[in-house]
Amino acid sequence: MIASVRGTVLHVGLDHVVVEVGGVGLQVHTTPATAAACARGQEVTLSTTLVVREESLTLYGFADTEGRALFEQVQTVSGVGPRLALAMLSVHSPAGVRQAIAGGDIAALTKVPGIGKKGAERLVLELKDKILASGVEPSLGAAGASGGPTGDRLSSQVHEALVGLGWSSKQADDALERVRAGGETPSSVSDFLRAALRELGR
């Protein structure tokens, strides 16, 4: 297993980064917030997990080991694969996911695209006791990078990220409009995305 990668960021996408390690560019799938905290030319260290399939090897990266551990843990539940696990960590922080499962908060879990009521209930049923028994104090997630694109480009990137997470184009547009109507528009992709996700969860 590839437990971590450290190297120079060659490319930043909405849900992935390419990190050069030993002359090789590794594409690492991440949450939009983790990707937004990276910048081209910056050296980063990401906790990673390699998902092996018959037809592919896919590397997933996280700002810390807590995110990686939760990503792996939720996949022990039937019906939860890597993409859905990553979507959970895109909508909620690792601490938020743990709290939702431990507290049986079905409403919070169903805010994740792809998780319905039955799926949320299965997550709570299978993981609640394990999370409560772990006694691990959830840490705060890594802060997003300051600065970044602004205006139309910023809106376009956040809109694309929301659609990629499973919301419709209209739902994404409505959420962005509500964020703008609420006052000052966030100046970074990660802050804007979090604000839009809060609106979609109302």
TrEMBL record:
Keywords: Cytoplasm, DNA damage, DNA recombination, DNA repair, DNA-binding. Residues 72-91, 107-126 form the Helix-hairpin-helix DNA-binding motif class domain. Its main location: cytoplasm. One of its GO terms (molecular function) is four-way junction DNA binding. GO terms for cellular component: cytoplasm; Holliday junction helicase complex; Holliday junction resolvase complex. GO terms for biological process: DNA recombination; DNA repair. The keyword RNA-binding does not apply. It is found in: Cytoplasm. Residues 149-202 are annotated as: Domain III. It comes from the Bacteria. The keyword RNA-binding does not apply. Signal peptide: none annotated. Transmembrane segments: none annotated. Belongs to the RuvA family. Has three domains with a flexible linker between the domains II and III and assumes an 'L' shape. Domain III is highly mobile and contacts RuvB. Homotetramer. Forms an RuvA(8)-RuvB(12)-Holliday junction (HJ) complex. HJ DNA is sandwiched between 2 RuvA tetramers; dsDNA enters through RuvA and exits via RuvB. An RuvB hexamer assembles on each DNA strand where it exits the tetramer. Each RuvB hexamer is contacted by two RuvA subunits (via domain III) on 2 adjacent RuvB subunits; this complex drives branch migration. In the full resolvosome a probable DNA-RuvA(4)-RuvB(12)-RuvC(2) complex forms which resolves the HJ. The RuvA-RuvB-RuvC complex processes Holliday junction (HJ) DNA during genetic recombination and DNA repair, while the RuvA-RuvB complex plays an important role in the rescue of blocked DNA replication forks via replication fork reversal (RFR). RuvA specifically binds to HJ cruciform DNA, conferring on it an open structure. The RuvB hexamer acts as an ATP-dependent pump, pulling dsDNA into and through the RuvAB complex. HJ branch migration allows RuvC to scan DNA until it finds its consensus sequence, where it cleaves and resolves the cruciform DNA. This is Holliday junction branch migration complex subunit RuvA. It comes from Ornithinimicrobium ciconiae. The lineage of its organism: Bacteria, Bacillati, Actinomycetota, Actinomycetes, Micrococcales. The gene is ruvA.
